[in-house]
């Protein structure tokens, strides 16, 4: 029920558009920041064939770097599309609501892929015992 006892009409997305717009803006912000500050950091010195400022993840785990790059870019673009669709969504538009659902699923999957690619470590990285000097 809506205000003054009236039944709410329109799709669920239309009724929740303010919250969805907030979430899409948050995803756009997170993915933009992750694109500027890539996981793994950068090489600090020029040595061993690496230049200072080059990405560590790119040099050490190229496949994970590509997965992060494409998933992060897809999540960023999808969140912008969600924002635009929410701005033009009206209560009667079934086609826009269906497109919005599809893009939101794509956005969620891309965000999860970027997180997994950027935060996982190789199986043997933490299992090596440290040797005292």
Structural summary, described in words:
It is a single chain. The protein has 133 residues and is mainly α. It has helices at 12-15, 17-36, 56-60, 62-88, 94-119. α2 (17-36) runs antiparallel to α4. It is elongated and about 65 Å long. It starts with 11 loop residues before the first helix and ends in a 14-residue tail after the last helix. The relative contact order is 0.16.
**Number of DSSP helical runs:** 5
Unreliable stretches (pLDDT < 50, length at least 5) are 124-131
Measured between the Cα atoms of the first and last residue, the distance is: 70 Å
Shape: elongated
What structural class is derived from the secondary structure elements? Answer: mainly alpha
Multimeric state: single chain
Q: Any idea what the radius of gyration is? A: 21 Å
Helix and strand pattern = HHHHH
How much strand content do the residues show? under 5%
Provide mean pLDDT, rounded.
Answer: 83
What's the β-strand tally?
A: 0
Helix content range: 55-70%
User: What kind of sheet is the major sheet?
Assistant: none
